[in-house]
Amino acid sequence: MSELLNFNYPPEPATDRVTLFADVILPLPLPKLYTYRIPFEMNDSVMVGARVIVQFGGKRVLSCIVADIHENAPADYQAKYVLDVLDDTPIVTGPQLKLFKWIADYYMCTLGEVINAGLPSALKLSSESRIQLHPQYNPEEDEIIFAPQEEKIIFALQHNQALTFTEVGNLLQLKSYHKFIKSLIQKEAIIIYEQVSDKFSPKVVKKVRLTEHFVQEEGMLEELFNQLTPQPKQLDILLNYLQKVPVHQDINLNYKGLEKSELSKNPHLSASSINTLIKKGVLEQFDQIVSRFPIDNLQQQLPMALSEHQLQAKDEILGLFKEKDTVLLHGVTGSGKTEVYIDLIKHALEAGGQVLYLLPEIALTAQIVTRLLKVFGEKLGVYHSKFSDNERAEVWQGILSGRFQVVVGVRSSIFLPFHNLSLIIVDEEHEASYKQYDPAPRYNARETALVMANLQGTKTLLGSATPSIESYYNCKTGRWGLVTMSKRFGQAQLPDIELIDIRDAQRRKAMNSHFSSQLLTAIEERLQREEQVILFQNRRGYAPFISCDECSWIPKCKFCAVSLSYHKYNNELRCHYCGYHERMPHDCPACGATTLKSMGFGTEKVEDELKLLLPKAEVQRMDLDTTKTKNSYQQIIADFENGKTNVLVGTQMVTKGLDFENVSLVGILNADTVINFPDYRAHERAYQLFVQVSGRAGRKGKPGTVLIQTRDPLQPIFRKVRNNDYESLYEHEIEERLRFGYPPFVRMIRITVKHAEEETSENAAIVLAKDLVDRLGKQQVLGPEVPYIFKIRNLFLNEIHIKLPRANTNLKAAKDQLAQAIFNLRLLPVFKNIRIVADVDPM
């Protein structure tokens, strides 16, 4: 790459040959595409959708995606040359580029931000400054005086082709080493260049096999045994190999060989003896590229036969697909929607298409992936953030090559390079997890999937037991098709739901900590019957905050306007917004008292107390704290499925789509925290949460019970949950939203103004709001107002809400006005450091 950076392309002779230019998408938040000149010899190798390497700025080298190729030189600057081409074929398809452009336009961000979010890191290139000896520097002839540190660098470069800046710092054992690099550049002893390396590399395993002539030539294997008899350790290795690779039955097995680790992990076999056999030429070692998604241990099976009810739903969906592009499958929990999905995927694959199966949470993928792998085997790819960069890049390449025809993944899966998509399934379509909050693009994967389907001419199936109000409205108005599954699969019945008034229980002294006696008795009964229990609490950690019993001091985050949550396992106080943490104090910093008490409770405290109250219970917790590692979800779910644990305590992760046949009791410990929330979606979300978590009980024929602890049992939402009355919820919510102007009748954009100084943030929001009122009208602009949490990561927040009626509103023109108002605000010197975030369709 040094040659590329230091090479000046000679002026091209005046001929008739075409000079081409490429507009590229740099992985930077730039408002426009940047144009580079394509060297003539690369004219045939640069393609739209492929990656090229360019120099941006002084020394920065980046990989980027070619968005367009044309013959128009930029008018405002002299185009630099493309340095290199990375791909023989495009890694981003035409429909993808159109989708990326739509995401940037609709969600008011840049194409660079979309590319950054969309491409796996392993397909993006990193550049790092390096130094090498100057080509014209001759240590024998040049009489240059060097400092001792400079001599160290020169000596190292004489024995190494190049050094990174980090390596120079380690060599000198100095933090401030840049002055020596600068001095050597001025003395023309070294030059700086950028080395770009492609991060993606396939997974390679080292294997061994018998050298060919021992297998092919008659009598050679017997002769080998005789030769190795005096060397028992080497003979053991040969015997072990032949046991695992029976070449006497089929000599072709030898070609595949055996992983070297299979031999070396045996404690009775010597690793040095294996290497000796390789040196002798008895074994040969070779590398083999293997998949990161092995399915060898999974026995493939045919999908389950659909019940009459499921067949009817499938036929209705296919019938509606003839008229409509989008269908909503509204099926009660446990109705067997997943089996319908699998049958529809099979139908799509038989027609030669690709399928994207979207899930809202990584927690759901563990169970569903196992089921799908058994049906679709090697055709299935999995894509989510807990996978490594290389694993995600392998799925990306596998879709391009046609290896993966079905992909199951979370919201980022909508960026994948499908080219023959015939079906998109969005399971649990109501989930807020489909919305990306930070950083940009702040997209909603459900809405983006609908646009993706439109661009690729495919169909979309949305599924949920508790659809979003917006989705159900689209069905009611005839825009989408609607299919309903109102019965559970097989003999299973919907669970009985009972309310427990914890105020009354406290008066009767029937509460043990945060558990009513009724709930504890019910848990004990299930454990005696060897049945399982799920407990839902909508807070993680041990306690939401601690407080001094004497002076009421409460520890606050240094960077956010929130109290610190207590996590007992790590004995620390932690901010759930910025991650700041500190040790739990022994006494009150304000008054010195030692009477510090935890207030409220989270999942960690529920787990802790339940182990004390029911010592025979095997309790496990599933929340953000216990699922940080790649396979933690899978392990927790596997332990629960296999009966190693019988009580699962969790946050919203346990409410979504999990299928456990032995769960007969679900407990909701504090329902009021879900309902009493200042948001127009509060009742909709509460209903969805309660119904979804209730749906985990009684799924395989065993009677299920749900116990909900609340201080307000007369709350109307509970009646709707107990009666599974979604229609009543929908009618009430849609009437309220029409009356007060909320989605689906308006589009909303939330503008958040951020600054390190509270007054500057407030003044900027006032100026911006006034400009927006002038541009869009007073009825469309609400605020500014200070949000409930007014400071996050040392920045003070102010919010402006824009409501744009769907009828008679030019959305693009309104967004252009908003963008211009933000641009004008930033031109004012006093607001030059202001940060502004536009969130389209906030959740």
From TrEMBL:
Keyword Isomerase on entry: yes
GO cellular component, one term: primosome complex
Residue ranges of domain Helicase C-terminal in the record: 583-737
Co-factor remark: Binds 2 zinc ions per subunit.
Record's keyword terms, sorted: ATP-binding, DNA replication, DNA-binding, Helicase, Hydrolase, Isomerase, Metal-binding, Nucleotide-binding, Primosome, Zinc
Record function comment: Initiates the restart of stalled replication forks, which reloads the replicative helicase on sites other than the origin of replication. Recognizes and binds to abandoned replication forks and remodels them to uncover a helicase loading site. Promotes assembly of the primosome at these replication forks.
Protein name: Replication restart protein PriA
